[in-house]
Design goal:
Layout lengths: L11 H8 L3 H11 L1 E10 H13 L3 E3 L11 E9 H10 L7 H12 L8 E7 L16 H11 L3 E5 L12 H18 L6 E5 L3 H8 L5 E4 L6 H10 L2 E5 L17 H18 L5 E4 L8 H9 L10 E4 L5 H6 L8 H13 L4 E4 L2 H15 L2
Length: 380
Amino acid sequence: MQVEILSSDIDIKKHLQKLGVDSGGVSILASKAKIHLLYLRDMSVGAANILKQDALSIGADLAVPRGTVNAKLQRVDALLIATTKHLKILSKKELAQPFGLKELAKKLSLILKTQSTKPPQIMGVINATDDSFYSGSRFLHKDYISKIEQMICDGATIIDIGAQSTSPSSKKLEARVELERLEPLFKLLVEQKLYEKVRFSIDSFEPLVVQKALDNGFSIVNDITGLADDNVAKLCGTYGATTVIMHMQNTPQTMQINPVYENILSQIYEFFEQRVQKAQSFGIEDIVLDVGIGFGKTLEHNLLLIKHLAHFKTLNKELLIGASRKSMIDKISPSTPQQRLAGTIALHLEAIKNGASIVRVHDVYEHKQAILTYEALKTI
């Protein structure tokens, strides 16, 4: 007999089918192979003790603090360790239990229904500005078309274009100035009919700019304010535009002044719930969510969001991540924006692993190669 240790990050159904397991057995065994770690905050001690016993009875477990069993604590946090099969059982079992466990059961059902991540797309970045934090994304008007065509050739399926820098040191532009920077590019895109080759995204939160872009072949609105302006929401709904809702704490000019969260995952989740509801009230159907790496977050916040990105998958929207050459990499490995490509790719591949289906990047070719290699590893 030979014993081989396999990675837990494999396509388990493919391996079971290769073994010759019957179709019914494939689904059953696959549900036992994936481990879920669910952090449960602020549970009543009664709920924790009931869930602990129910979990143990089916082979799962619930890690709880000392003092939970004898109810020395009134409220506790806990960590549920369970397979997909266990979650299916608990999602039904806890419906009959008190202390808020019925709501937990509904959440478990939602987790089980979460859609699989779509194949990753690359969104290339073009900045029609002279103060972008990364000089490599700035272009003169005469260079726009060649750069866009190169990005398409390199593998971009979306090109994101903006004229308003959103780095902490940037100054907010008037809408008319932003539009003046972009109009020559809009004209070129229409003349060349490049919108037939790739989808264009407008990186703006100004209604005047958004409408002009949508009138000139753009089909995506990338709003860093997360639809704070009803006029932008109305335009997105009227034009049927795909809408990227990003989370940002405060404004670009103040966002990095001591950003604080009580619980960042839950707070951003609640923000997305509210803004998705708002978007849908304006008739917006195609919604993408962006946790806003670097927008009012510390290094630890950014790492937590990328590592636990799957937390947001139960919203059943595509997830976009944009960590390209950002200063969080400098905090890990001191570097200039020009030196942060390797760190960028590492962060984006981790984000894809955890549920991102769109990565917003300055370096399209390198990301395409990295993603193809990453996807090839998953086929083994």
